[in-house]
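Notes from the pairing session

We agreed to fold both candidates in a single pass and log them together. This is the raw record for the first candidate, unedited. Please don't reformat it; downstream parsing expects exactly this layout.

Candidate A
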Amino acid sequence: MINFDEEIKKFHPSLEVDDVEKVAKTENAANDLTDLMLEVMNGKKKK
C-alpha cells in the first residue's frame, strides 16, 4: 500500500516550475505577457 506521507516527503518541485513562479510574480513579466498576447491577437486580426 502507498504511504502518502512518505511520498510527500520525497516530493521536490521541478526547478522550472519554481523559476516560472518567480518570473510570473514580477510586474514587468505580467506586462510583457499582456503585451505579447495583445500582439498575437492583433496579428490574427490583420490576417
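Candidate B (folded immediately after A)
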Amino acid sequence: MVTHINLKRCIGCQFCVQVCPRGCFEYDFEINKVKLVNPILCLKCRACELNCEGDAIRIEKPIFQNFFAQLI
C-alpha cells in the first residue's frame, strides 16, 4: 500500500497531521500544504485519508501489485 497526497486538492487543514499516530505528515509553511515526510512509518490505518477535508489523501495498492495479483 502506498500513501499519496494530491497537492492540488490539499486545503492545508492539517487534520492528517493531527490524526496520524506515527507523525508521517508535516505542514509546509512555504506552500501552505501538508507533506508526507515519513512514509516508511505509515501504518496504512487510513486515519489521514478518512479525515482529509480536501479529499487529497489516498492509500492505494501500487499498480504493479495489482497487476501481479491478477496473474496468479
